Amino acid sequence: MLNIAVLVSGGGTNLQALIDAQNSGEIKNGKITCVISSKADAYALERAKKNSIATRVIERSEYSDIKSYTRAVTDALIEEKADLVVYAGFMTILDSQIVEAFPNKMMNVHPALIPSFCGKGFYGLHVHEAVLESGVKLTGATVHFVTEDCDAGPIIMQKAVEVKNGDTPQILQRRVMEECEWKILPKSVSLFCEGRIKVNGKITEII
């Protein structure tokens, strides 16, 4: 049984999707053992506590630079004996220390079809605003391994949804979450815990 640590900063809707999948038996050979938040008031912490999951708060604001903050988060994950680290609405880009400590053992869900609408500055509603401004007819979500380059790690799973007439960024965000993020993130976590993801450079193979 692998230890899954989840990094959060806000409401924790993706964390809830993982908790629900765990409770229903969808995540095989893995268990969420710790939730670490960059903010003390993140509602995600309440979601964890309601499900008897251990929590830790490592406030970004208490660290002078990203290097010292990354070290603190990395040390906490090592202490928690994390086998898999999941970024679930974690709003801080950490440096190479954590990538070196957990190579191909960290995954993130991004609310667009990478390599479109990704990278620095593309987060939250900004992504969906850019999608609507571009006029594309499909968008979706991507689960990928975390590397030093933002949103550029090997892609594990993707799922698409239609962009509809009359969509606002908020409406589109909700559709992407419900129909894409909340489905492919738990599946990707389970695949990892089952040892079914093979990484070869930038390419992943589901075995």
Report what the structure shows.
The chain has helices at 13-23, 44-50, 66-79, 96-101, 125-134, 169-193, and strands at 2-8, 30-37, 54-57, 84-87, 106-110, 138-145, 155-162, 197-200, 203-206. The chain has 207 residues and is of the alpha/beta class. Strand 4 (84-87), helix 4 and strand 5 (106-110) form a beta-alpha-beta unit. Helix 1 (13-23) packs across helix 6 (169-193) and helix 5 crosses helix 6. It is globular, with a radius of gyration of 16 Å. The protein starts with a strand and ends with a strand.
List keywords for this structure.
seven-stranded mixed sheet; 25% strand; 9 strands; globular; alpha/beta
What is the succession of H and E elements?
EHEHEHEHEHEEHEE
Question: Which regions contain 5 or more consecutive residues with pLDDT less than 50?
Answer: none
Average pLDDT confidence is 97
Helix content: 25-40%
Beta-strand percentage?
25-35%
What separation lies between the terminal Cα atoms?
Answer: 19 Å
**Tally of strands:** 9
Radius of gyration: 16 Å
Structural class: alpha/beta
**What oligomeric arrangement do these chains adopt?**
single chain
Put simply, the count of helices is 6
Order of strands in the sheet with most strands: 3-2-1-4-5-6-7
Largest sheet: 7 strands, mixed
Form type: globular
